[in-house]
Amino acid sequence: MLSTIENYYERLVVDRIREVFTERDELLDPGYFDDLACVALNYLPPRYVRYSIDLASHMSDEEQASMAQEVADAVSFAIETTRRRQEQRV
């Protein structure tokens, strides 16, 4: 029953993390990737949908731009938070 329900932000966060590290030309450890995604997703409100295409087609360009900015902010927060935690451990 719940197999068709997903958090719309998950795909956006995953795509943004990949984009950031591709731009930096950095390899990303899978465990670190998962940590970043968890921190970023916890920073965002959940947005559950059955079909992501339905949500995207009903949003205005302004709403899509706003969500993209929220995701970019969340990923930046996640990167800084995980770096700070790693530095504190060392």
Class of secondary structure makeup: mainly alpha
Number of strands: 2
Query: Main β-sheet, in a few words?
Result: 2 strands, antiparallel
Strand content range: under 5%
Alpha plus pi helix count: 4
What do the pLDDT scores average to?
A: 90
Going across the major beta sheet, what is the strand order? 1-2
Radius of gyration: 14 Å
User: What is the count of structural domains?
Assistant: 1
SSE succession:
EHHEHH
Question: Could you explain how this protein is built, in words?
Answer:
The protein is mainly alpha-helical and 90 residues long. The protein has one domain. The chain has helices at residues 8-23, 30-43, 52-58, 61-89, and strands spanning 6-7, 48-49. It has a two-stranded antiparallel sheet with strand order 1-2. Helix 1 (8-23) crosses helix 4. The N and C termini lie far apart (45 Å).
Features:
single chain, mainly alpha, two-stranded antiparallel ribbon, 73% helix, 90 residues
Question: What's the short version?
Answer:
This protein has 4 helices and 2 strands, in the order βααβαα.
Detail the topology: elements first, then pairings.
Layout: E1 6-7, H1 8-23, H2 30-43, E2 48-49, H3 52-58, H4 61-89
Antiparallel strand pairs: 1-2
Helix pairs in contact: 1-2, 1-4, 2-4
